[in-house]
Amino acid sequence: MKTLMPDLPATPIDLSGPRLRNNHKGYRLGDEIIDGFPDRPQLPPFQRQLIAEWADAFGHALSAVQQELLRVRPGPTKVQREIFEAAYRDGEYDVQRLGESGVYDALDPADIDRCELPHSVLGRDRGYPVNATELAVLARVSYKQVRDWDKAGLLPSHVIDGRRHYFTAAALMACALRPLDRWQIAALRGILCAERDSGFRRLVDYVSDDSAAASIS
Fold it and tell me: Is 13 exposed, middle or buried (0-12, 13-18, 19+ CB in 10 A)?
């Protein structure tokens, strides 16, 4: 099981300036929602370079100015690199897994809105990544539940600047876990902790496969 990192203060990272949208189709700038990744000359150079990096990473055409910004950019800081890599994994892997498993479709639309628009709950200047306290507010669960679920490996999380942070997939997963009782949570924890070749895990896989076959026939 992973070791839980200490929680962060309420605003651990400066998230002013452009913020990547959860669907990776653009960014937010204050209250404005921008489609695509156009350059904004009025922004500081490092923020313009960040927009150009997003455009490049997500397959959008770069303007000549953005190409030059990327050519002369300084290397990203360790924290910047960790945030970018975590956000990319969240959108390209963790959220997709929730969709493929059917968990996303089973969630309350109000919960989805809260998780996809964290600033609507946490305040206009707050977005992902969030800490355990903020995740609890988004998912309408207790701080203790978030910490327990994280210790059990039930929430996708990312270490940024030496501490644990959460993105959209973790908030959605916490909402999905919220109605489960402690026995169901314990069962999930047991499955995750069981070795793939253990007798317990083989029984779980067998029953799951058998149940799926029965529902088809």
Answer: middle
Cα–Cα distance, 66 to 51 (Å, whole number): 8
User: Is the Cβ–Cβ distance between 86 and 165 less than 8 Å?
Assistant: yes
The vertex-9 CA angle with 8 and 12, nearest 5°, equals 80
The model carries a pTM of: 0.63
At 8 the pLDDT is 39
Say whether 32 sits in a helix, a strand or coil.
strand
- The tokens describing 167, both together, are 């993105």
| Beta-bridge partners for 130 | 166
Would you call 189 exposed, middle or buried from its count of C-beta atoms within 10 A (0-12, 13-18, 19+)?
middle
d(CA 112, CA 139): 9
Share of the chain above pLDDT 90, in %: 34
